[in-house]
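Ops channel
N.P.: pipeline sanity check, posting one input/output pair.
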């Protein structure tokens, strides 16, 4: 049994973190999505613990996935530089093949939940919370950074 946990500890940690992220943000989406505006309140009230947990998890997952992509891109650049320094700077296919399954799953989880939040924000508008808007804008910023890599062609120093 201990050997199983030793071999899979990183997968267990990643699964627990991503499950918590999905659970907390699904709760936020349900509360905001099912809320009907009343005469006095412009947006639904969320308790402080939920807002804090959602913010920390979203920021953490965004940072973790962006840094994993950045480090992988850096490794590809270093390996392709060669002795003469004339190799391609970035090859998106090489970056994608070097990412671990955990990182790819984390990226897909972040983008999926983020897209759901973005759609809710666009449809609810003023009737959503600042938390929803902040995460939606954060996702857009993350996507712009990722798109910079995706749409970048191979370059050489020459």
């Amino acid at each position: 049994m201990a050997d199983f946990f030793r071999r899979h500890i990183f997968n267990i940690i990643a699964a627990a973190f991503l499950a918590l992220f999905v659970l907390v943000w699904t709760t936020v989406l349900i509360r905001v999505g099912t809320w009907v505006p009343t005469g006095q309140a412009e947006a639904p009230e969320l308790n402080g613990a939920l807002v804090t947990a959602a913010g920390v998890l979203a920021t953490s997952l965004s940072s973790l996935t962006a840094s994993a992509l950045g480090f992988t891109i850096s490794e590809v650049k270093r390996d392709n530089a060669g002795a003469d320094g004339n190799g391609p700077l970035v090859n998106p296919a090489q970056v994608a093949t070097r990412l671990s399954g955990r990182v790819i799953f984390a990226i897909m989880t972040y983008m999926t939940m983020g897209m759901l939040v973005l759609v809710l924000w666009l449809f609810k508008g003023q009737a959503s919370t600042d938390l929803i808007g902040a995460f939606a804008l954060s996702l857009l910023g993350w996507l712009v950074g990722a798109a910079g890599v995706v749409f970048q062609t191979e370059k050489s120093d020459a």
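N.P.: looks fine end to end. DSSP finds five helices and no strands in the chain.
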